[in-house]
User: Which sequence fits this backbone?
């Protein structure tokens, strides 16, 4: 029993998996932030175009 507990604490696969999940979460957060900022900039550009060419 003690041997299996010691083996469990020496096993680093779970730590590696957690690190990969954290890295993937960080990448996803950066992608969401980038898309949001780009979307806001595109919306502003369309608003400028709409202001220059109003509906007739």
Assistant:
């Amino acid at each position: 029993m003690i041997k299996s507990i010691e083996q469990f604490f020496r096993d680093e696969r779970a730590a590696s998996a957690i690190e990969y999940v954290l890295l993937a979460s960080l990448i996803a957060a950066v992608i969401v932030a980038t898309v949001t900022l780009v979307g806001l900039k595109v919306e502003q550009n369309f608003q400028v175009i709409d202001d220059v060419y109003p509906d007739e």
Remarks:
- Helices lie at 2-10, 13-52.
- Residues 13-52 form the longest helix (40 residues).
- The chain has one domain: 1-55.
